[in-house]
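Suppose you are handed a protein chain with no further information: no name, no annotation, nothing but its sequence. What can you learn? This example shows the usual starting point.
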Amino acid sequence: METETQRIYIGGLTPDIQEADVIGRFKPFGAVTACEVVRDKGVSGDPSHCRGFAYVSFQPKDQAALARAFSLYNGCKWRGNKLRVELARPHFAAKLQQEWQEQQQQEQQQREADELAKQNGGLPPK
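A reasonable first move is to predict its three-dimensional structure. Written in structure tokens, the prediction is:
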């Protein structure tokens, strides 16, 4: 039984890390669907260097596989750095979409309540 896709934050990465390196670390625990190694941007930063963290979206084989990945990699040394591995906070776009959907549902419920009150002659429903 597969679980839903998880977005994982990995901190403590070296500047020369590549997406393939990070994917290779999580592949034994499930299907990696995306990997974003955050790179330096701007005039002063070298765009080929990792800023020290990445996000991996993957579908673990099961909840035990997810727990094993966290226990194995969180706090371990890799290429001389200590890794920090945890569930990522929701991406801002996903969070905005969720808030928008919740707002739409609330507005729909209010319209339904207003329509019901109108049908009852302005009296609130019992």
